[in-house]
Automatic annotation (TrEMBL):
CC terms in the record's Gene Ontology section: cytosol; protein-DNA complex
Domain (OmpR/PhoB-type) ranges: 132-231
Domain annotation Response regulatory: ranges: 3-116
One Pfam family linked to the record: Response_reg
InterPro entries: CheY-like_superfamily, OmpR/PhoB-type_DNA-bd, Sig_transdc_resp-reg_C-effctor, Sig_transdc_resp-reg_receiver, WalR-like, WH-like_DNA-bd_sf
Residue runs in coiled coils: none
Matching PROSITE patterns: OMPR_PHOB (PS51755), RESPONSE_REGULATORY (PS50110)
Modified residues (4-aspartylphosphate): 52
Protein name from the UniProt record: Stage 0 sporulation protein A homolog
Origin species: Sinanaerobacter chloroacetimidivorans
GO molecular function ontology, one term from the record: transcription cis-regulatory region binding
Purpose of the protein: May play the central regulatory role in sporulation. It may be an element of the effector pathway responsible for the activation of sporulation genes in response to nutritional stress. Spo0A may act in concert with spo0H (a sigma factor) to control the expression of some genes that are critical to the sporulation process.
Length: 231
């Protein structure tokens, strides 16, 4: 049975999330304070974390930063804050999605299912990769079946969304994609429709694969149009 950790100080919301997730077959644990949530997240095995932003003792942003040092599992931030800056900050710290309260519990469960399914592809990274299926562009090597990326023969750790975005661009080189097209292709129903999600993930990718992210060699911005992967 897959396990979910809910870090939420509002008992009503936490119990609502738990009830819907348990109906869908998940085992759920709840932490009402940030420090307790951090301890559980770092010392237990979960398949996904639902993380509120406004928490006593340690806020959700700091929790996300600390959890990301230890775990690669999906993190879905849940908050009543609607400002884009909060979404951008959360995604920039490594969250996989940002859900605004109030939300439809059925949609929350659908997003949880989707993120866990995508993450499960990552944990199969040790499968052998046929050489002919590698994508090699300059010093960048992408192994689609193994979900692994190498730069100068050193493995680069990407989140599942970062990998999907890179793979889509690299398998469609020299084609300009709008932010809307990328959002629809990579996130689909998994996010709220904020195009800042695409910008944040493009910037994070550049920081990881580009020698100089301000002068990208791989992912190029086409002003007024979108992004393209240069070969």
């Amino acid at each position: 049975m897959k396990r979910i950790l809910i870090i939420e100080d509002d008992n009503i919301i936490a119990e609502l999330e738990r009830d819907y997730l348990e109906i869908d077959g998940y085992e759920v644990e709840i932490a009402a304070e940030g420090d307790a949530g951090l301890y559980l997240a770092c010392n237990n095995d979960y398949d996904l974390i639902l993380l509120d932003l406004m928490l006593p003792k340690v806020d959700g942003f700091e929790l996300c930063r600390e959890i990301r040092k230890e775990k690669e599992i999906p993190i879905l931030m849940v908050s009543a804050k609607k400002e884009s800056i909060d979404k951008i900050r959360g995604l920039g710290l490594g969250a996989d999605d940002f859900i605004v309260k109030p939300f439809d519990p059925a949609e929350l469960v659908a997003r949880v299912n989707s993120h866990i399914s995508r993450y499960e592809r990552l944990i199969s990274a040790d499968r052998p990769m046929p050489k002919q299926q590698e994508i090699i562009i300059g010093k960048l090597k992408i192994q689609p079946e193994a979900w692994r990326v190498f730069l100068d023969d050193e493995e680069i750790k990407l989140t599942n969304k970062e990998f999907e975005l890179l793979l889509f661009l690299a398998t469609n080189p020299n084609i300009v994609f709008t932010k809307e097209r990328l959002f629809d292709r990579i996130w689909g129903m998994d996010a709220m429709g904020d195009m800042a999600t695409v910008i944040v993930h493009i910037n994070r990718l550049r920081e990881k694969i580009e020698k100089d992210s301000s002068k990208p060699s791989y992912i190029e911005t086409v002003w007024g149009a979108g992004y393209r992967f240069k070969v």
